[in-house]
Each structure stands twice: as C-alpha cells, then as structure tokens.
C-alpha cells in the first residue's frame, strides 16, 4: 500500500463520528495484546484447522499481525430451525405441495448441524445417515452446505492492515478492513460457497435415483474444496512476500 493510499484511508477514517483508538497507543500495546490474543482459544475445537496451520503460523511470525478467528473451509448437512425459515406463502399463488424449507444463508445457533467435515475425503453423508448416526424427522428437509475459508487478522497499524488487504485480494477479492475502532481488523473471506437441498424427506434415502444425486452433490463438494484450497495456496505464496508495513 502506497503512502498516498494510507494517508487517503486515514483521512476517510478521521471523518467518521466513531471514537477511534489512538494509533500510537495501539502501536505501543500491540505486542502485549498479541501475546494475550494468541494465548486464548480461537475455535470451538481448540486448535487451528490443519490445512491452514502453516498459513496462520506464517502470519503470526510477523510482528505487525495477529490471527483471530479462522476456518479452513468445511462441508456439512443441516436442517433449518424455525428462525431460518420464511413466513408461509398465502393465497392463490402458494404451492402447498412443495416444502416450506428455503432458509436464509446464515445458520441460526439452534439449527441442527451434523456430519461436519474439513476434508473432502471425509464427505460421506449417505453412509452417515444410513448407519443411523443422526436421522432427522421423516419430513425434515436436509441441506448440504460448503462454507469456504475465512480469516480475521488484527493489525498493528492502518498501513499494515491495508497492506494485508492488498496482498490478499488476488486470491480473495472480497478482503477488506472490517474494524478500526478498538484495533484494525482485516477480514479475508472465501467465495466458494454452496447450499443446496440434499433431500426433502428421509424416505428419499431409498429412492431409485438416490445414488446418482448423491454422486452429483459429492462432485460439487469436491470442486468447492479444491477451489478453496487453490485460493489458500495462492494466499500463502502472496503473503510470503509481505514485508513489514509502515507505522501509520
């Protein structure tokens, strides 16, 4: 990020009405805050996902950056809760023969999520369901979802934050400055998202054409995992050349 770009971004931030933290204070306190942040657990399973462990270690080896929450990408089955579903259709245009199960993109905390995998080789929902590990209600619609890589990084200054955004955008074009009040946080989100109905009723597990559809969904998940992995590899290569940014 050029000096001109950093100064322009700083001017835009200075015009906001939010109470901003003193950049000098953030710069001075960042090393201690980084130690405290890295000492805390940042995931529900208690460790980094293995596909991105090397990437996170590389970022944290740079004194201006500290990784926060992250996910390497995952696939899972899920059933929408009442909070995920829209209001039932009414009137002559309604189609009562179709299930009212088109959820929002965001999964509510109470949603039932199962068969969560971080490696395409582990994706085998048919066996998982047939073994009776977790069977939804007979008329419950089950969705198959892939959520791509996502990473949040705390940065020591505006300059280093914008430098990280610039370095990330070849692989993850939607990278952006997410927060600037308490600390500068960069968000690096993936784009290889997919969500599709897996079956509308548990009775479909025994349908004659079930195997063909299951293979199709498996191929979609494989494509998403591969595209996600390519982006991560590109990001690793680009960040290998990321130098310390200016103090701003």
Automatic annotation (TrEMBL):
<protein>
    <recommendedName>
        <fullName>tRNA(Phe) 7-[(3-amino-3-carboxypropyl)-4-demethylwyosine(37)-N(4)]-methyltransferase</fullName>
        <ecNumber>2.1.1.282</ecNumber>
    </recommendedName>
</protein>
<dbReference type="GO" id="GO:0032259">
    <property type="term" value="P:methylation"/>
</dbReference>
<dbReference type="Pfam" id="PF02676">
    <property type="entry name" value="TYW3"/>
</dbReference>
<dbReference type="GO" id="GO:0008033">
    <property type="term" value="P:tRNA processing"/>
</dbReference>
<feature type="domain" description="tRNA wybutosine-synthesizing protein">
    <location>
        <begin position="39"/>
        <end position="240"/>
    </location>
</feature>
<keyword id="KW-0819">tRNA processing</keyword>
<dbReference type="GO" id="GO:0008168">
    <property type="term" value="F:methyltransferase activity"/>
</dbReference>
<dbReference type="InterPro" id="IPR003827">
    <property type="entry name" value="tRNA_yW-synthesising"/>
</dbReference>
<comment type="similarity">
    <text>Belongs to the TYW3 family.</text>
</comment>
<dbReference type="InterPro" id="IPR036602">
    <property type="entry name" value="tRNA_yW-synthesising-like_sf"/>
</dbReference>
<keyword id="KW-0808">Transferase</keyword>
<keyword id="KW-0489">Methyltransferase</keyword>
<keyword id="KW-0949">S-adenosyl-L-methionine</keyword>
């Amino acid at each position: 990020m050029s000096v001109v770009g950093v100064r322009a971004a700083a001017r835009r931030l200075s015009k906001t009405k939010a109470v901003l933290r003193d950049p000098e204070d953030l710069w001075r306190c960042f090393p201690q805050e980084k130690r405290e942040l890295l000492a805390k657990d940042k995931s529900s399973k208690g460790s980094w996902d293995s596909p991105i462990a090397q990437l996170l270690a590389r970022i944290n080896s740079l004194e201006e950056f500290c990784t926060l929450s992250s996910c390497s990408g995952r696939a899972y089955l899920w059933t929408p809760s009442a909070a995920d579903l829209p209001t039932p259709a009414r009137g002559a245009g309604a189609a009562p023969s179709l299930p009212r199960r088109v959820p929002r993109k965001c999964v509510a905390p109470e949603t039932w999520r199962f068969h969560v995998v971080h490696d395409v080789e582990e994706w085998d929902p048919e066996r998982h369901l047939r073994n009776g590990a977790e069977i939804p209600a007979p008329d419950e619609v089950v969705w198959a979802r892939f959520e791509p890589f996502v990473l949040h990084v705390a940065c020591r200054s505006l300059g280093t934050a914008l430098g990280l955004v610039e370095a990330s955008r070849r692989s993850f074009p939607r990278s952006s400055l997410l927060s600037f009040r308490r600390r500068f946080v960069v968000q690096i989100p993936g784009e290889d998202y997919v969500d599709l109905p897996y079956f509308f009723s548990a009775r479909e597990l025994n349908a004659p054409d079930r195997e063909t559809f299951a293979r199709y969904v498996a191929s979609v998940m494989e494509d998403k995992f591969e595209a996600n992995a390519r982006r991560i590899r590109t990001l690793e290569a680009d960040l290998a050349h990321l130098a310390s940014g200016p103090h701003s």
